[in-house]
Request: fold
Amino acid sequence: MSTISFRFGRKKCADELNDNSSNFSKAEERRSCWSVLSINRVVIEAKIIHKRGGKFKILDDNRGGRYIGTIADASDVIRCIV
Reply:
């Protein structure tokens, strides 16, 4: 079974669609940036991606993955490192 991805212009096989070894896709990698966040009064460096409505999803962090998948508000972002 395979599907066609028109957005990226290539065909994806079922093995690629079910591969959970990578935490995020290449598209998310391109749209993300490292930033400094304050979550529950803890300052961390994290790779974030904008989801919408002033919300950011944490893709990676410097705390051993403790905050991966956490949704942060825009007011939690201190600065972005581009």
In short: Helices lie at 14-17, 26-31. Residues 1-21 have pLDDT under 50 and may be disordered.
